[in-house]
Structures are given as C-alpha cells and as structure tokens.
Specification:
The chain has about 450 residues and is mostly helical. It is built from 16 helices and two strands. A hairpin with a 2-residue loop joins β1 (about 115) and β2 (about 120).
Length: about 450
C-alpha cells in the first residue's frame, strides 16, 4: 500500500486543482472529475491486480504484455518504460524538489550556475537520486521502510490539516479572481480537466513492478493496489474539499500550488513551512517508489535478453543492483541535459496506450488461458476493465482532437511517442525475423 500510495502522492494534487477550477466553476463538476478519475484508476487497479497475482514476477507491464501479445510488443513497451517513463520521472521528481522545496525549507539559493549551464539544484538533484538508489541497493527491507515513512507521514499530515480546515470552516481567504470559465464545463474544458486529474492519479500500479518480492502475492498485491488507490482517492477528495473551503472556487483558480497557499492563508507562514515539508516528504516517497519499480523493468527485460544481461544480476538480497545504478545514471543524464519534461511529455500518450493494452490483456488471457491459476480475479469483471479502457479511449481521442484543433507543439508533441513505440516494436520484429532467417 505504501508503494502504491507513495507513487501516486506527488506534486499533482497541489498543482492540478487550479487547472480543474479554471475549466469549471461548478463545485459539482469539480468534484465529479476527481471522483470519476479515481474510479477509472480503481478499475485499472483491479485489472492489474489480477495480472500481478497470476504472474507474480518483477517487471510489471513488460511481463504481462509479453505473455498476452508476444515479445515485440513487450520490447517496445519496456524500452518506453525504462528508457523514458521511469528514468524521466526520477529526474522530474528530483529536480523540482531541489528547485522549490529544499531551498524554501533550508533557506538556501540553488539557482546559481556550477559549471556552464549546470545549476546547483541539478547537482543536488543528482546527489538525491544517488542517495535513494543506494538505499534501494542496500535491500528491499530498507527501501520499504523509507517508503513507509515518506508515504504515511505526509498522508497523515495532509489528512489532519484538511479535516482542520473543514471543521474550522473558514471563510474564503483569498480574493476571488474573475474567471472566464462557464458555470458548467464545455466538453473540451472537461477533457482538459479530466486529463490533468487522471495523470495526478498516476502511480496506482506501482507495486506490480516488484510483484516478485511481495510475500503472499495472491493476498497482498490486491490489498496493496486497491487499498492504496482507495486511500489516495479519499485523501485527494478530502484535500480538494479543504482547498475549496479555504479559497473558494474562484480563489482556487489563482493558487498555483494549492497546498502551501491554503496552509499559509489559513494558519500563517509556519503552517506554510510545514506544508512545504510534507510536500517534500511526498516527493521523496514518489521518488523512492519510482526507483524501486523502474529497476525491476530493466531486470525483467535483461532476463529475456531485451536489454544488457548484466542488469539481470541480483545480489544475495535479491536486489537488481546493476539495474538500479544503470537507471540512476540514465536519470542523471536527463537531469544534466534538462530534457526530462520534454521526454515525459513525449511519451505521455504512449504510456496511456500501454496501460490500456495491459488492462486489455485481462480479456486476452481470460480467453486464451481460462484454466490458469488466478489467486485474485478482477472485481466486477468485465465491467471494471471495460470502464478503464473506455476512459483511456476518451483521453486518447481528446488528445488527438486537441492536436487537430490546435496543431501546436504543446498538443502535437505527445503524439510523437506513439511512433517511437511503434519503431521499437518494428525493430524487434525485424531483428527476430532476421535471426530466424539466418538460423534456417
């Protein structure tokens, strides 16, 4: 549960409310988007839980896609996951932590240049990535302990604060900002808001990447995936209720980072400092969970020969140490180059398509391997995976329509990740065909 909840509880809950409030001023629509996206994540979670208990191996999507669709699809997905999603996410978590939270907490300036275009915050971010990689390399027990601390402390802190705001019932404390958004959202406005919230929930499948190291996977994986998702969903709705109670719907549109804004406005600078500290803890939890899971994708690929086989090596404690350090090196390159935001934007749509393919694998494997051992079967099958696939189709179509309506770099860039996934798939198919031909 800590891996799942910690992977979800990033900066999204503090940045996304402003986007949603800007698109829709109706509280019903505002909370409806958060609930709908949470239900979609939960539907995906139960499908992933079935696959993870059926195949309790490290590697997550890569393992399930390989069994359902073959090695070429898995190869394309694995390279996108390890080469961009996990390593890019590690960089995208470490850099903002050192740009905003740590300077605010420590009262230091990390914006100065160290060597040419390299800033001090980038150097500190690299140090943090190496530190958490070392924690994971020391063993899963230590990594799990760190995950517990960096997940439950901020979750408990924000839950207590949100309840205090709601019970105290303060009047809106920020002057309302005139918004041009209609009282009821348009379809395009709903799509923008929903996509923002949908990605704020990302990480609900975090534990599947370490499924091979979970004790009693048939019992604990479903509890972890579903329990962690439900816990974060409840926390998000509770925090949004506190944001609206403190700022009002119009005031929320002007809160770039809602958590610190609400804490400072309702309880003063000291509360703002505590909120910043809890956000930093949450980011560290997400960073630790991302490092933990990404290395297992590389390990699974290496075991199949789809990546350097050295990444498959494990220590006596069962830790893929080489994969961990290789992942950190790649993430550090992204940090130094400053390209991690572009990388994640590039693969955002491909990541969603891969998630849909993984959930669809439940249908494929139910039909192909009806007698396979399934310690857990997706709750309310086939409706839950069908709902997730429907929501994913909606988001993909909305992004495509957005690109057609506004053919600008911001809307077109995410589409480029799909051809990259296709190229990796085609390259693997071609290499296999060539190998077969030479063998014959």
């Amino acid at each position: 549960m800590a891996v799942v909840a910690g992977s979800m509880l990033g900066i999204g809950i503090f940045l996304t409310p402003r986007i949603v409030a800007t698109q829709m001023q109706s509280p019903v629509a505002f909370f409806g988007v958060w609930l709908l996206a949470g239900v979609a994540a939960l539907c995906g979670a139960v499908a992933y839980a079935e696959l993870a208990t059926m195949m309790p191996r490290a590697g997550g999507d890569y393992v399930y896609l390989r069994r359902a669709y073959g090695p070429s699809v898995a190869f394309g997905a694995g390279w996108v996951l390890f080469g961009a999603v996990f390593t890019g996410s590690i960089a995208a978590l470490a850099v903002p932590l050192c740009q905003y939270q740590l300077p605010a907490l420590l009262g230091i300036d990390l914006s100065a240049s160290v060597a040419g275009p390299v800033k001090a915050h980038s150097v500190v971010a690299i140090g943090i990535v190496l530190l958490f990689t070392a924690v994971n390399a020391a063993g899963t027990r230590l990594a799990a302990l760190v995950q517990d601390l960096t997940t439950w402390i901020p979750m408990a802190g924000f839950a207590v604060f949100a309840v205090w705001v709601l019970v105290a019932g303060p009047e809106p404390v920020v002057a309302p900002i005139v918004s041009s958004a209609p009282s009821w959202p348009t379809l395009s406005g709903f799509a923008v808001a929903f996509m923002a919230v949908y990605f704020a929930y990302s990480g609900w499948n975090g534990v599947i990447y370490v499924a091979g190291e979970v004790r009693r996977p048939g019992r604990n994986i479903p509890i972890g995936v579903v329990g962690g998702t439900v816990a974060v969903m409840g926390l998000y709705v509770l925090m949004c209720a506190a944001f609206v109670a403190a700022l009002g719907m119009s005031g929320l549109t002007g809160a770039f980072e809602a958590g610190t804004t609400v804490a400072t406005a309702t309880a003063g600078p000291a509360a703002g400092y505590i909120a910043t500290l809890l956000i930093a803890f949450g980011l560290m939890g997400t960073l630790n969970g991302t490092i933990l899971g990404g290395a297992r994708v590389a390990m699974a690929m290496a075991e199949d020969g789809a990546l350097w086989r050295g990444f498959a090596a494990q220590t006596s404690r069962g830790v893929p140490e080489r994969a961990l350090w290789g992942q950190s090196a790649w993430a550090c390159v992204y940090i130094l180059s400053g390209t991690f935001e572009q990388i994640l934007n590039l693969v955002s749509l491909a990541m969603m398509v891969m998630g849909a393919l993984t959930v669809a694998a439940v249908f494929v494997l139910r039909r192909r391997d009806p007698n396979a051992v399934r310690p857990y079967r997706a709750t309310a099958y086939p409706w839950t995976p069908a709902v997730f696939l429907g929501v994913s189709a909606f988001v993909v179509v909305a992004m495509l329509l957005r690109a057609v309506a506004k053919p600008e770099a911001e809307s077109l860039y995410p589409l480029l990740g799909l051809p990259l996934f296709g190229l990796a798939y085609a390259a693997h198919r071609g290499a296999r065909a060539l190998k077969t031909r030479r063998g014959s």
